Amino acid sequence: MTRSSDMIRIAFMTLAPVLALSATPLLAQRALPPAQDLDQLEQIVVTTLGADIGQPGGPMAPIDRRMRLAACPIGIQVDPPTLGAVTVRCTTAGWRLRVPLARVDMVSANRAQPNGGRPAPMARADIRKGDPVQLIAQGQSYSISVDAMAMEDANIGGRIRVSAASKPGTLFAEVIDMGRVRLIGFK
Asked: Whole-model pTM?
């Protein structure tokens, strides 16, 4: 054998494992199942809540783009807000994601306000704090309503916290008429 063919053989034997290892991640990436489009997922959450990112009642922050969720072949479910977050789930792919919500007092605290950080009371609110309201959860083929109490002032179209006698805790609702609010997430 010639010296040049020996050098080529040694170089090939040295580089062959390196080339094989560098190709492995490319093959592994091709083998991964399709991922859920996080922009689409974020848009579904914003549309369901009716509030943009950082707005009261909307997602506190964008969905983390470092996540890789399996693509959901059947509809994505967004549960009603509980404990300051909504749960987004895909039962067929087997994942769920909790998206924290921007609270009304957090958003208003970020703005400069003259009352020491407290929002000024509304002069002519359609619903005032302490008013009895009818809380409605409505779908295409059903409508359920319960008595509740407004925990803050709001006008029609605004979002408020309400407390239902039948459920402990706070719920977020949209004011749809004088004395009537709709549970967010049930449109």
From this structure: 0.43
Sheet with 77-78: list strands edge to edge. 77-78, 85-90, 95-100
Q: pLDDT tens-digit profile of 26-58?
A: 555 566 778 889 899 999 888 888 888 888 888
Place of tokens 């020996």: 6
> 3-state DSSP helix/strand/coil percent for the chain, to nearest 5?
25, 30, 45
How far lies 114's CA from each of 105, 120, 121, in Å?
15, 8, 12
Tokens of 180: 């009537």
Encode pLDDT of 4-32 as tens digits: 667 666 666 666 566 666 655 555 556 67
Angle at 163 between CA 116 and CA 62, to 5 degrees: 65
